[in-house]
Amino acid sequence: MSVTIDITGLAAAGGGPGSSDAGRWRRVSFTPSPLAELGMALHALSEPGHHPRLRGWATAATARLDPGLADRLCEADFLWRTTFSDVFAPFAGIPGGLARPGTTLAEELDRLDELTDEQFVHSALEFTCQLRYDVAGPGPLDDPVVRRRSLELAAARGVVQERFTRRLLEDPPAVRAWFRQLLLDCDEAFFADTWARLQPELAADARHRTELLRRKGLGEALSSLSGAVSLDEEAGLITVDKLLVGRTATGDGGLVLVPTSLGRPHLLVLHRYGWQPTITYPVSGSHPQAPSVEQLTLRLEALAHPVRMRLCRHLARAAHTTGELAQAHGMSAPEISRHLAVLRRAGLITSGRRGRYVQHQLDLTVVARLGSDFIEGVLR
């Protein structure tokens, strides 16, 4: 499973395969976004379990919220609690596919105002109301059936969301003005100080990736973001390893990559139909590289077998040979070897020769990370 971005249009815009990397990728932009980071901040406040390293910051920011602002945030928290709405990347919805995030929150909110009511409503409700995402489809403002279904789904999520959804469908301009003021109040309450602290780090990361793009090309720049992002330059295809399937294309537009400090472990791909493709990635840090979704699946499947679980119990305590394990478990050496091969392919054991014997041992570091790797994989 993955999200793919067809970027053949980027190379064509830059002059084709014979051009320099700088010319070929001139429509690729690494750009921080204060609005996207504010969205990440709101997500971290509402879902602290996703971001344990931000617990101290979240506690301090929450303490600065007055009760009225906290209540207003609860009204619209479905935009950032369990998902990350595209209303936090309005530049991507501007026709032409070449817009970039603003340098200030005010500029980004002006871009948010440039979206049509249809764009705003559709992007605000697509997750909770199951609207179509990466293909064209009717929206709740112009289709009575979709509208009725949206209200039914909102009601199933509680009276607060139903009330907000109904307001949004009945008077989009009023709700948009309310939402803009909400974000401005968040900026005044806690985000302005946070952005002042984070902006230099994000700008430095964007400069570093831009220089890497200029010197070594898009493949190197993308692989530096995460092992989950790869480029098939011949096919003109970016693949982002995620537990979902999606596809989009840059066409005649560009590709925007937005660094985030508050967003780890999320690696987000905006692949909305008709919008500019955007990847939001965590800035570099001293974090182990998470395994791919395929590798994570192999590890979970390997540990699901009772024999391999018992083998892990032995191998966690000391290194053993295949013969020792066969004798301890009353099985033949070939049977043990087959189970060890599954554990080895999953990266859960290491093997080394000592004299005449090959000994196997459980990699406790990998196993210890399995829980956090699973969480990171499903949140990616």
Describe this structure in words.
- The protein has 380 residues and is an alpha/beta fold.
- Helices cover 52% and strands 13% of the residues.
- The chain has helices at 8-14, 21-24, 34-46, 55-63, 67-75, 105-114, 117-125, 144-156, 159-170, 172-216, 218-223, 293-303, 306-317, 322-329, 333-345, 364-368, 370-379; strands at residues 2-6, 28-30, 229-232, 237-241, 246-249, 255-260, 268-270, 278-282, 320-321, 349-354, 357-362.
- Strands 3-4-1-5 form a four-stranded mixed sheet. The protein has a four-stranded mixed sheet with strand order 2-6-8-7.
Overview in brief:
By secondary structure, the protein is an alpha/beta fold.
> Segments where pLDDT lies below 50 for 5+ residues?
none
Mean pLDDT: 87
Q: Give the terminus-to-terminus CA distance.
A: 12 Å
Strand content: 5-15%
Main β-sheet, spatial strand arrangement? 3-4-1-5
Q: Based on DSSP secondary structure assignment, what is the total number of beta strands? A: 11
Largest sheet: 4 strands, mixed
**Total helical elements:** 17
Note the overall shape: globular
* Strand/helix succession: EHHEHHHHHHHHHEEEEEEHHEHHEEHH
Structural category: alpha/beta
Tell me the Rg in angstroms. 24 Å
User: How helical, in percent, are the residues?
Assistant: 40-55%
Features:
380 residues, alpha/beta, four-stranded mixed β-sheet, 11 strands, 52% helix, single chain, globular
